[in-house]
């Protein structure tokens, strides 16, 4: 039997595979970690790109955010945003920032 985190890792593998493919430059991951996604990173700039990524990975994004932030993840991530597009952008950017931060910290600890 899989525990909750193992199940999430399997479910999220498509999400993490997509992020691995896109963020394969360590220095770019450091930039995301240090400055956030507002700096503008290709594939995550335009609303259409962000919405497409969200649509492709919606369940995995929501499951990942629920795992790390709990029931109130939308309130936690999207405190100051009121439109659907802004909320989706914040959810996606938060996941990317967490992913890049974890990638950098793991590499630096090795």
Give your account of this protein's structure.
With 110 residues, the chain is an all-alpha fold. It has 6 helices and no strands. Helix 3 crosses helix 6. It is globular, with a radius of gyration of 14 Å. The relative contact order is 0.17. The N terminus is likely disordered.
Cα separation of the termini: 30 Å
Portion of residues in beta strands equals under 5%
SS summary, helix count = 6
Q: What form results from the Cα inertia axes?
A: globular
Low-confidence stretches: 1-8
Oligomerization status of the protein chains: single chain
Whole-number mean pLDDT: 87
Q: Please state the structural category.
A: mainly alpha
Order of helices and strands: HHHHHH
Radius of gyration, in angstroms, nearest whole number: 14 Å
List the helices and strands and how they pair.
Elements: H1 4-11, H2 13-22, H3 26-35, H4 47-69, H5 73-77, H6 84-109
Features:
single chain; 110 residues; mainly alpha; 75% helix; globular; disordered N terminus
Outline:
The chain is 75% helix and 0% strand. The protein has 110 residues and is mainly alpha-helical. Mean pLDDT is 87; it is low at 1-8.
């Amino acid at each position: 039997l899989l525990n909750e985190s193992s199940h999430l890792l399997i479910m999220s593998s498509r999400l993490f595979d997509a992020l691995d493919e896109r963020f394969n430059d360590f220095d770019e991951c450091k930039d995301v970690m240090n400055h956030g996604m507002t700096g503008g990173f290709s594939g995550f700039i335009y609303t259409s790109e962000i919405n497409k990524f969200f649509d492709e990975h919606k369940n995995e994004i929501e499951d990942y955010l629920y795992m790390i932030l709990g029931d109130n993840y939308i309130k936690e991530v999207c405190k100051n945003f009121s439109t659907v597009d802004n909320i989706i952008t914040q959810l996606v950017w938060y996941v990317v920032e967490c992913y890049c931060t974890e990638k950098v910290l793991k590499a630096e600890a090795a």
